[in-house]
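User: Hello! My lab partner asked me to get a predicted holo structure for this protein. The small molecule is flavin-adenine dinucleotide, SMILES included with the sequence. Please write out the structure tokens.
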Amino acid sequence: MRAMALVTPETSEELRLIVDLCNNLGQTIIVQGGLTGAVEGQYPCLNDLVISTEKMNKILSTNTFEKTMVVEAGCTLEQIQQAARDKGLLFALDIGARGSCTIGGNIATNAGGMEVIRYGMMRDQVLGLEAVLADGTLLSSLNRLQKNNAGYDLKHLLIGTEGTIGIVTKAVLKLRPQPSHQQTALLGCETFQQVETILDRAQASLGESLNRFELLSRAYYQGQMSFGDHDQPMAANFNWYVLMEYAGNQPDAMQDWLEDVLSTGMAEDIVVASNQKQERALWSIRDHFEGITSRKLFFNYDISLPITAMEQYLLDLESTIKTRWPDSEFYSFGHMGDGNLHLFIMPGIDDKSLKDVANDMVYRPLGDVGGSVSAEHGIGLEKKSWLGICRNSTEIEVMKRLKGLFDPNHILNPGRIFDIQPE
Ligand SMILES: Cc1cc2nc3c(=O)[nH]c(=O)nc-3n(C[C@H](O)[C@H](O)[C@H](O)COP(=O)(O)OP(=O)(O)OC[C@H]3O[C@@H](n4cnc5c(N)ncnc54)[C@H](O)[C@@H]3O)c2cc1C
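Assistant: Hello! Below are the structure tokens for the protein in complex with flavin-adenine dinucleotide.
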């Protein structure tokens, strides 16, 4: 990755001066946090200046009664999670890249992860922000209130806009009470209908203590057992597997509910983790897929669609892939409770240019079912040409107008999300 130069400001004022200068000179800027972004938004060109937030990495304050934390943008997610735990509280965002990704990057991409079903996305964890806008304005909007409807809530201009409007420098984060009991279970199902019923009943019975609800397809589970370094907790012949977590204050709530699930035939088989080691082993089947992906060229997708359309979409997609590439492999898994799936497509031919064909197979049908080409990762450079599948032309036009208003010289993360020419 090469660029014109890399600067690492230590304060908001230093960062503001750099942006102000760049704006006056028409110098393009690429913002970098932890470099874990999944859609190439963080990658510069040779003539870009890179601004990294790596030295803006202090936790500034924690208020345990209000349950708020004020942090600098370059703090890693893990640093924030640990600081909250140290105070007996929870910062309720968790993604696999936690050790490297920064909270500024999480805010810019509106990151999701495992516990969105309960706590929402990054947007729901932010009370206030400080940011440097593309024209060098320092916008301080460090609101700490849960309720503040006094005019526009400007933080939403910065959340999920992938660094195209401004650079996040500080954030006021919402913390939560730490649940006292946690339990993980793996459920095997024959039909997708069973999975839908389990989700519906779990939401009704466990309420907000339903912390995670992940779906693994048969191919994914079998692939993990064949190619990954995992113990097999359950037979590998069910069509669907659900990995779910309870986190609440009633020790027996999940166990009681699972007995009901089994006795009423909602699931064919259930394995419950009885200690933390077993919990980690079960989640590892979901998270550590290197055994599958390290063998062959694969294309990776992060999509969302209505849960009611999911089964048919997957069946149709698999059939399209197999017809086109008879030696292909297709794996699906993900945050089903949020309508979010991750897909791996291995065409079985070692040719990266096939990605365009695969994109067409995955993205085009999403338009018909009201899905999205990006559930969590954003658009960046990678998905630009597919934005029109899930946003109408008026939405895209208004996005461009906002960009033009805040960044008339198009210096900040140019070409991310959409292309726009300076006037
Ligand atoms: C193993 C792994 C697991 C992952 N799991 C998930 C997941 O479950 N859910 C999910 O949503 N994502 C996931 N991701 C993707 C990635 O971690 C997130 O997009 C993350 O939020 C990016 O943070 P970052 O600090 O690494 O940002 P970077 O990669 O540095 O940047 C990402 C984008 O944000 C912009 N940006 C960075 N910092 C700022 C700032 N301070 N102000 C304005 N713009 C900024 C960049 O310009 C770029 O456009 C995963 C990635 C990996 C490698």
